[in-house]
Amino acid sequence: MSDVESALSALKARGLTRLPKLGIVLGSGLGPLADEVENATIVPYSDIPGFPIPSVAGHAGRLAFGTLEGKLVVLFQGRGHYYERGDSNAMRVLIEAFKALGGESLLLTNAAGGLHREWAPPALVCIADHINFAGANPLIGEATDKRFVPLGDAYNPTMRAALHAGAEKSGVDLRDGVYMWFSGPSFETPAEIRAAAILGADMVGMSTVPEVLIGRFLGLRCAGVSLITNYAAGLFGGSPSHEETQEVARQGSANFRKLLRAFIAGYA
Known about the structure:
About 30% of the residues lie in helices and about 25% in strands. It has about 270 residues and is of the alpha/beta class. Strands 5-8-7-6-9 form a five-stranded mixed barrel.
């Protein structure tokens, strides 16, 4: 039995024979939204073979299935990162299981460092595109021509429009920007941030891109939202730390939750 088959068996044993069309991955410090799910079924990742066991503070590592804004959703509270085990496929089984049980749209969220003074933390940014600065790719080793995934619309226009509509409805300011993926776990150097700016990045972080690559490979619609938790290294006094990331994510969680609730109401 494959890892995905084992995961599906474990989920079905918990009564999760089908998942909603919309799944949301909650990043660093953004997990509390899962506590607001109504009529929730909660399953720890540790109970699902192949699901990542996060080793990062702020990533609870559990699945929450239920309703928000009257719509069925599944929230993935925490993720596996490339830097934890050197595996860009850390989220592969989770995303494949979501797809196999009816998933169609995947919204990724993260905490990120900002490159613009006017994006004072905790600002919210809809990811318009990405730059894979880390160079790793979860599709390396795929034996079929499906590995040649087109990424011209990696961040689904319909989902992005729904995010902006949700922002307007909820009175939340939502910008657009390009996310650059660094492998981590060390934060970026000031020189790397200067290079990122030259290459067209608006924010930097250590996640999300591998999940988008897997999701698009599987035919899922994908979108992303970054919560800017700090200025990137060397910019406007920025000297990021994990503690700062978590604290500012908590400060920005109210607007983040309002945005996601409005998005769910209009999209799911």
